[in-house]
C-alpha cells in the first residue's frame, strides 16, 4: 500500500517555500510552527506559535494567509500511481480534516474545546476553511488518479481515555455533515474512507456508520468501551476495525508467548469473516523491547505463510 502521509509530496508541493528554523522547527501550510519537544525517549512535534490564538473576530481570520489547493501539482498523480501497478493505493494523512487537533495547534486545546461548547464563530470559520481546503485537495488527487486510489485517510480525535471529548450533540451540530460530505465525495471516486480517532469513540460509532465511514482507525483497547472483541460483536460487518494491538503498556511488558497468543486470537476472533486490519493502536513506542516488536511481526508473517522482512531484523 502506498501513501503520502505527512510529506506533502504526493502530489508534489509547489507552493510558497515553507520556513525551516534553526531550532529544528518548521512551518506547515496552515502557518503553524511545529517544534520538536524532547521527552524521555525522543521528541514529539508540538506547536510553537499558536497563530490563531488571539483572534476574536471573523475579520481577524479573514486577514490570515490560508493555504491554497493550487499549491500542489496534481498532474503528477498518474505517474505516481503507475509506480505501483499491483498495489492498493492510499492517500491522505492524519491532517486531512482534523478539525479539533488541527485547529488546536493554532489556537490552543483549551480554547478549541471552549469554542466547540460555545459554537464560536471564529472557530467555525477556521473549521470551514480546513474543510473546504481538504475537500478540494483530496478530490483533485482522486480525479487526477483516475480511480486508482483505493483508500483515503482522514482524522479527528473525538475521544479521550475515558469517553468522548465532546457531546454527541456537538458532534452532530458541528462535524457530522462535513464528515458526510467528505465521505460521499471519496465514495464518488470509488475509494473507501479510513478515519483516525484516538481514544474512546464507541458512543459515536453508530453515527460514524450512518455517515458512511468505512473503517475506524485506531482501535485503542485500553480506552473505555474500545475492547476489539466487544466492538466486533456490537458492529459485525458494519465498519472495519483498524488497530487493536495495545501499545499503552501491554506490548512493552508482554512475553513473546503472550504476544503470539493475543495476535492469533485477534486474527481468529476479530478478523473472522473480515472487517479487521490488525495494527498497533498507535506508533510502537520507543520503550518497547525489540524482541516484542519482532514477535508481533513474526506471528503475523507466520499466519500469512511468509517471513519477517530482512530489514526488520537488521
Descriptors for this entry?
single chain, 314 residues, alpha/beta, TIM Barrel, 6-stranded parallel sheet, 3-stranded antiparallel sheet, 12 helices, 40% helix, globular, disordered N terminus
Structural description of this entry:
With 314 residues, the chain is an alpha/beta fold. The protein has one domain (65-313): TIM Barrel (Alpha-Beta Barrel). The protein contains twelve helices and nine strands. The strands form two sheets. A six-stranded parallel beta sheet has the order 4-5-6-7-8-9, covered by helices on one side. It has a three-stranded antiparallel beta sheet with strand order 1-2-3, with no helix packed on it.
Outline:
The protein is of the alpha/beta class and 314 residues long. It has helices at 58-62, 77-82, 99-107, 109-118, 121-145, 168-188, 205-211, 228-234, 250-253, 256-270, 290-303, 310-313, and strands at residues 26-27, 33-38, 43-47, 90-97, 151-155, 192-196, 215-219, 240-245, 276-280.
* Outline: globular
CATH architecture label name: Alpha-Beta Barrel
Strand order of the largest sheet: 4-5-6-7-8-9
Work out the helix count.
Answer: 12
Q: Assembly type of the shown chains?
A: single chain
In total, how many beta strands?
9
The major pleated sheet works out as: 6 strands, parallel
The percent range for helix content is: 40-55%
The string of secondary-structure elements, in order, is EEEHHEHHHEHEHEHEHHEHH
Structural class: alpha/beta
Task: Please tell me the overall pLDDT.
Answer: 93
Unreliable stretches, pLDDT < 50, 5 or more residues?
A: 1-8
